[in-house]
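Same chain as my last thread, 348 residues:
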Amino acid sequence: MSRRTPKLPSWLPIDPYILALIGTVVLAALLPASGAAADAAGGVSTGAVALLFFLYGARLSTAEALDGLKHWRLHLTVLVCTFVAFPLLGLAGKGLVPYVLTPQLYSGFLFLCLVPSTIQSSIAFTSIARGNVPAAICAGSFSSLAGIFLTPLLAAALLGNDGGGFSADALLKIGVQLLLPFAAGQLLRRWIGGFLTRHKKVLGYVDRGSILLVVYTAFSEGMVAGIWHQVTPVRLGALLAAEAALLALMLAMTWYGAKRLGFDRKDRIAIQFAGSKKSLASGLPMASVLFGAQASLAVLPLMLFHQMQLMVCAVIAKRRSRDPEEEFAERPTAPAGSAMAEEPVAVG
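reply #2:
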């Protein structure tokens, strides 16, 4: 999201793509795919996930990311927030079962704690708040790259059978649908990277359309299996409250923790926005592979958290932008490679 979003107050950034996702969920509820149609949709969805991760690999410049290691303390801090602090808080949420969250909703709540951070929104909010934008770009890139490998491993370790069962067949699916296409994209980047850059707007629609297809397939399976009877309004309200508490804790931890670690204000802004977010674009296709028929309940917490983080961080970024200019002059921003000044295609 950015300030250029039309006809929306700056304090309420409703992501239009979230509206498209909601529409897709409604369509799946009214017209779920079943029988042969479900088999066809599942096959196309599998191909869409592979295409998504191929494009992620082809877009993500490992060389540029490695160049950003000059500010390694900041990036390590963001990675710890994303893949250590978040999962620990997710595990602590186990105490909410079964009185607050159902076991299925908790699996989705824990899963959202395992996915990587965003790139685009972290950069946008860091820029609005006058933070260290090159660091936000690097941090988001590192997180996305690490998440390709860490999210499935963490899900296997922490979710176990709740994640659909991590048998040899499930691990093979992860390798074939996620890791292999990503590696292929990285290998072919030198030949197709320029083409992807020139057509990134069109390919952005391919990304989003693929994710909508994944969501439709997952929620159709949920409707056919009848699992949506488990989500009452009370349970949904409890899930929102748990996610609000999770976001508040991470926002406070990243802001005040970064101060204790000696980062200046611009770096603290980048750490807060990159370290407190979760990527919808990476998480949805991963969930379709990891959870199978249970993917619809697994992605619901992530979808809700995504919109919540946009709304809350937009308010914080606007307030930070009004801070006195002298507060940002504590020390020069750590250098980053010249390639980092160019915003990558969003993965979050």
